[in-house]
Amino acid sequence: MNATTTMDRMLDGLPRKAQNRIYGVLDNLRVMGSVGNARVAASMAPSVVRGLVLGRAHSGDAVPMQARHAAHFDLTYQNEFPEMYDLYRRAVAGQWNGERDLDWSTNVDPENPETAVMPLDYPPFAGLAEKGIHLNAKEKLRFANDLASWTLSQFMHGEQGALYAAAQVTESVTWLDGKFYGATQVMDEGRHLEVFLRYLDTKLQKTYAVNDNLFVILDDLLTDGRWDVKFLGMQIMVEGLALGAFGTMYNFTKEPLLKQLLKYVIQDEARHVHYGVLALRDHITKELSPAEIREREDWAYEVALLMRNRFLSHEIYYEWFEGRLSLKDWDDVVLKAPSMAAFRHLMFLRLIPNLEYIGLMSDRIKAHYDKSGLTSFLGGKNATQLSADDLLRDIAAYKPEGAASAS
Ligand SMILES: [Fe+2]
Ligand SMILES: [Fe+2]
């Protein structure tokens, strides 16, 4: 009998609330240590405790985080990284204005399916029906709108994290050209925060707290003192996650203001990932010891799993289905949803080739990715080989299987 079956049997006889609590605790414990690296588990543990055990993301108006990185004040003023300086120039030229370039007069009507923020083929209604949850037409519409607010709220929280991480990395990097580039990224992330916040505030009028697992990742990378771990976390992992999530929403939404907003943001994010791989490839392949590389490989793998399996909209579950469905069944429904498959596909399509390019895909760690079914993305194009237009084309080309029948 495997462990899951034993746990299922153990939970079966308990009241629903107790089931959820025990399942949640066991699930949180599983978050750490998938790859068995004690140093990685120890470095992530404080963030896991703050996020998953203490629930800091829901603890009030602000969450104090202790940053421990060193600022590098450059006195050489040498331009040593022309490719990075070129990215800086492109970023300066590509700045857009969230106020002027987006049509905020657009009427976002939550009742109009023609311009749905989240069309009804996005939420996992088919999976819910299999578990005995049947929503009527009105409920489906309200549910889709809540899921849109939840998703965009997570984008907003992620952008706030990206803003601080970009500022920290700009202080820490040793290349002057990286500091120039970083300054544009700080502006980009500030603008992303501005537009998602404005959209939520003025168009959807409902926001959700930051998801606990997203909080763990943001807390971990904002408080880790090692600039390259911060950099890996933000520029490769979270930006990869963002491209997957923004791309999925961009594909599904029929609301023109949101579509345009996401297009602008995706173009900026493509540059951010490009900067990340440029900076990390040199550092990882030339400066880190084998033990340090191994630790970063393991850390990236843990974060990749956290991103793949953990954005399961529990806040929506508690609002809609607590008492009608177990948390475990909800997780099953979300993980099998076509929209989730689209998100995972777009995220790993970009992430895996980037990890390969920067030197964090040894045969040892490849075996772990293989076990998780992620090696089919190896050999794909990395961020240095892709323009923003290529990215948008790939995003538009992806059609999730079964999406049409999901409603
Ligand atoms: Fe961003
Ligand atoms: Fe970004």
What features would you highlight for this structure?
mainly alpha; Ribonucleotide Reductase, subunit A; 2 domains; binds fe (ii) ion
Which helices and strands appear, and what pairs or packs with what?
Blueprint: H1 3-12, H2 16-31, H3 38-53, H4 82-93, H5 125-130, H6 137-172, H7 176-204, H8 212-223, H9 227-252, H10 256-287, H11 290-309, H12 314-320, H13 327-336, H14 338-358, H15 363-371, H16 388-397
Helix pairs in contact: 3-8, 4-7, 4-10, 6-7, 6-8, 6-9, 7-10, 8-9, 9-10, 9-11, 9-14, 10-14, 10-16
One fe (ii) ion binds at residues 159, 162, 189, 192, 269.
Radius of gyration: 21 Å
Number of strands: 0
Strand content: under 5%
Mean pLDDT figure: 86
CATH superfamily of the largest domain: Ribonucleotide Reductase, subunit A
Low-confidence residue ranges: 402-407
Total domain count = 2
| SSE ordering | HHHHHHHHHHHHHHHH
* CATH topology term of the largest domain: Ribonucleotide Reductase, subunit A
Terminal Cα span: 35 Å
Total of DSSP H or I helical runs spanning 4+ residues: 16
> Class of the largest domain, according to the CATH hierarchy?
Mainly Alpha
Structural class: mainly alpha
Shape: globular
CATH architecture of the largest domain: Orthogonal Bundle
Bound molecules: fe (ii) ion
Helix content: 55-70%
Largest sheet: none
